[in-house]
Amino acid sequence: MPPSSKFAGVDFSELPVEHLTPDTTISGQGFRCLRGEFVTYWRQGRIQREIDARISQCWFLRCEDSLAGYITLLADKLEVDEPILLDEGVQYQSFPAIKIGLLAVDRRAKGAGSRLVEWAVEYVAAEVSPTVGVRFMTVDALYDQDTTPPYDASGFYEKFGFQFADPNESLPLSVPYRTMYLDLKPLIDMLSVEYSD
Asked: Per-domain residue ranges for the chain?
């Protein structure tokens, strides 16, 4: 009989998403992410170095003393080939955005990735957008054609409403990712109504 997962039965929607600070004590020992480089980034301090350099911020989920997953957010710019807000009278093809830089989840922590993305979308819509002009969230969804089957993270992000910045991009890619974006305006508008009631 296989050993039970340390995350068995955990409802990640009930756990708080914590902000990574220099005082955070969680080693990442035993963290098993499908993408090994994301484990290395945590254990070797790359995430903390990026925070210290003020190029990203990180939030994470833990279950007792075990790291279940983390997400980093940073400033970005969404660039599209065709204007996407013409019906609103906006002709720009470049927009300020907040980017999901890294999303890493222990492969045994079912639901942790969804919890982190849902939290990030709501955080940006509720906390960032009211103070800084930002309407879009972006992500470079990994596409690794060197694995069998190819690793393609875009399907995961599509479940949250992300769409391709270049829907006509053909595979295989010249880079190992496909840029996707999410329009936060419907959520921003809904939150504005809720807060005004």
From this structure: 16-161+176-196
Measured between alpha carbons, how far is residue 55 from residues 40, 49, 175 in Å? 19, 9, 22
Q: Which residues contact 40 (CB under 8 A, 6 or more apart)?
A: 46
Q: Specify whether the CB–CB gap between 27 and 43 falls below 8 A.
A: yes
Q: Is 182 exposed, middle or buried, given 0-12, 13-18 or 19+ CB atoms closer than 10 A?
A: buried
The string of pLDDT tens digits covering residues 45-101 is 899 999 999 999 999 999 988 999 999 999 999 998 888 888 888 888 899 999 999
Alpha helices (H) along the chain:
36-43, 46-52, 112-123, 154-158, 185-196
Integer Cα distance of 48 and 65 in angstroms: 18
CATH architecture of 16-161+176-196: 3-Layer(aba) Sandwich (3.40)
pLDDT bucket at 1, cuts 50 / 70 / 90? very low
Q: What is the pLDDT, as a whole number, of residue 173? A: 65
Q: Which residue has the higher pLDDT, 10 or 196?
A: 10
Which residues, at least 6 apart from 27, have a Cβ–Cβ distance to it below 8 Å?
43, 67
